[in-house]
Design a protein that fits this description.
single chain; Helix Hairpins; 4 strands; 76% helix; 3% strand; elongated
């Protein structure tokens, strides 16, 4: 009887009846339920972080003339989609974290903005963000929250650093501008100093001329002093003379006034006489008309009378003219008298002024002499000034050249360059993560581990129903190898069915991407053959104890395979387990095939699994050989599972 026939008989035995067939189907589905459902539940948990409630306590009061940094952090958190943020006060946040209403809380203090800007006031202090967690809610949430807060801290630090660097660079631009202004001013100063040097030379020459003029002024003031003294002596009797002149003029004015008054009286009498003649002419004309004279006769008489009085009218005109001239003479004489009186009144002051002028001229003479001496001193000073301005011109030229040279060494950028430089200073290091291969999601990262575990568990549960060795074949004296392989093949076939179903659902329904799905499926199928061979060997060699040993191996492989954290993080005592047990090689091979890694590494994993496969069949063969001899322990075992 061949091994395949023994396997077929065993499969026929376990599928005889409806319930046994359902049991076989259930055994095939066990890896699917374990692996696919776990990966489905944990396929991409990070994409649903927005459903985790978190409390945000915003207390930041901002700072004058500054953007509220706390509000900006809150806006960025809401925009990021990480966690479901609820803005509450501190009391509600604390109570919510304790009760589990919120997974954790983040508190931004009232002085957060002020703290971030404190360095600019040379009173530096850190902005403190408080994160309150409760591991009773979930340990990993706290870990993720710490990562989020770390990103917030990094972002805020980069922004603050960028702002500070921008102000720093703006300061350099300001220094550049001011230095440029200073250089321009130094240029103007150099030009002005050169002009001052030339002007000082001209001033020195002019000052020498002025000294000569001062000497001449001293001589002239001396002559002026002599002339004023002579004038003072000549005019000392002037007040008395002008007083006498005033008296004479007053007498003349009085006489002229009397003559003018007499002439006015004569003029008045003459006017009255002429008026009487006019009246008489009228009476004569009236009487002649009354006496019967004709109008022509009357006019002839009146003409004769007019000619007769013409001398009288002429004399009256002369009298009036003389009277007017006499009045003018009287007025002029009075004005002369008044002027003479004013002259007599002011002549003492004039004489006194001449005396004072003579005295002042003496002082002016002395001052002019002092001025001459001072001008000589000024000549010496302007000579020194000329020398100093020459040195000033040389120094200002050096200042101009030095500022222009230093101007080129001061950083000066345009706005885009300054912004880019500020961002680089604020956040100098960028992370460029280049992955040779990527899992794609959290579930993708766990898939190699849980596919391997599901395959082991699937192989483990098969022997709850399958018999590892056929007693009939052993009793018939068949070859131990044939019996061993015939007992392994049913488990191997059902294991392959488990793997195909598991891999199909995981890659299509759950959505775990496989870079090389054919090779990955073949590798996982080979791992299933290996695991069934190992568990078949344990059950064949140790009997009921083998099931327990299979469970122990499962636990040992859970902790040593490095399916979650890198195996290098294991305690040193577990390193040998990782190197010896097959699960770590399954995880390694599946990672490379699912993610697109190096295929050369997979060959090493296959060799290890092949060694376990051959070893498992060898142990099963030894167990079959041993069980050809019946013992009391086999007839009546102490433990039956």
């Amino acid at each position: 009887m061949t091994a395949f026939r023994l396997a077929r008989n065993e499969l026929r035995r376990i599928t005889a009846g409806r319930l046994p067939r359902l049991a076989v189907i259930a055994l095939v589905l066990v890896p699917l339920l374990y692996g696919s459902l776990y990966l489905f539940a944990n396929h991409d948990p990070y994409s649903r972080l927005s459903t985790i409630p978190a409390a945000l306590v915003m207390q930041d009061q901002g700072a004058p003339d500054q953007e509220n940094a706390g509000e900006k952090v809150a806006a960025n958190l809401a925009k990021s989609g990480a966690f479901q943020w609820h803005r509450v006060d501190a009391r509600d946040a604390d109570a919510g974290v304790r009760s589990g209403e919120y997974s954790f809380s983040m508190t931004i203090p009232s002085d957060f903005t002020a703290a971030l800007t404190s360095s600019g006031e040379f009173k530096p202090r850190q902005g403190l963000i408080t994160v309150s967690t409760n591991d009773a809610n979930n340990y990993l949430v706290g870990t993720i929250a710490d990562k989020v807060v770390g990103e917030v801290r990094k972002s805020v630090a980069a922004e603050v650093g960028t702002t500070a660097a921008d102000k720093f660079l703006v300061g350099f631009n300001t220094i550049f501008t001011k230095t440029q202004d200073a250089a321009n001013g130094a240029t103007q100063l150099a030009d002005g100093a050169a002009q001052a040097r030339d002007g000082a030379a001209q001033l020195s020459a002019g000052q020498r001329k002025l000294a000569d003029g001062a000497v001449q002024l001293a001589a002239g003031t001396k002559e002026l002093n002599t002339g004023l003294n002579t004038l003072r002596d000549k005019t000392k009797d002037l007040p008395a003379g002008t007083a006498k002149l005033a008296d004479g003029a007053a007498q003349v004015a009085a006489g002229d006034a009397q003559i003018a008054a007499t002439g006015q009286k004569v003029a008045d009498v003459a006017n009255r006489f002429v008026g009487d003649l006019d009246k008489l002419n009228g009476d004569i004309a009236t009487r002649l008309r009354a006496a019967g004279f004709t109008e022509d006769q009357v006019q002839q008489v009146m003409t004769a009378l007019g000619q007769a009085r013409q001398p009288i009218d002429d004399a009256n005109g002369k009298v009036q003219a003389v009277s007017a001239q006499l009045n003018k003479l009287a007025d002029g004489a009075k004005q002369v008298a008044d002027g003479a009186q004013q002259l007599a009144t002011q002549t003492p002051a004039l004489a006194n002024g001449i005396s004072q002028a003579a005295t002042g001229a003496g002082k002016l003479t002395d001052g002019a002499a002092q001025l001459s001496a001072g001008e000589q001193t000024a000549v010496d000073g302007t000579t020194k000034l000329a020398d100093g301005t020459a040195k000033l011109a040389d120094g200002s030229a050096q200042l101009r050249d030095g500022l222009n040279q230093g101007l080129g060494q001061i950083p000066h950028t345009d706005d885009p360059t300054r912004d880019a430089t500020a961002r680089t200073i604020g956040d100098p290091v960028a992370i460029n993560t280049v992955g040779d291969v990527r899992a794609g999601s959290y579930g993708g990262g766990l898939a190699p581990f849980f596919l391997g575990l599901a395959t082991w568990i699937g192989a483990f549960v098969l022997f709850l129903l399958l018999k590892p060795l056929s007693n009939r074949a052993l009793a018939a004296g068949h070859s131990p190898l044939r019996v061993a392989v015939g007992g392994w093949l049913p488990a191997a076939g059902l294991g392959l069915a488990q793997v195909v179903l598991l891999f199909t659902v995981v890659t299509t329904v759950v959505g775990i991407n496989a870079h090389n799905w054919i090779a990955a499926l073949a590798f996982l199928a080979f791992a299933s053959l290996t695991f069934t061979a190992i568990l078949h060997a344990l059950n064949s060699f140790f009997g009921a104890v083998g099931k327990f040993l299979g469970l122990v191996l499962l636990i040992l492989q859970l902790i040593s395979s490095g399916g979650t954290f890198p195996w290098q993080t294991l305690p040193d005592v577990l390193y040998p387990l990782h190197s010896v047990l097959p699960m770590g090689y399954v995880v390694d091979g599946m990672r490379h095939l699912l993610y697109g890694g190096s295929v050369s590494t997979v060959w090493k994993d296959l060799l290890v699994l092949a060694a376990y496969l051959v070893g498992g069949l060898a142990v099963s063969t030894v167990a079959a050989a041993r069980q050809r001899v019946w013992t009391p322990a086999r007839l009546k075992p102490e433990l039956v599972l």
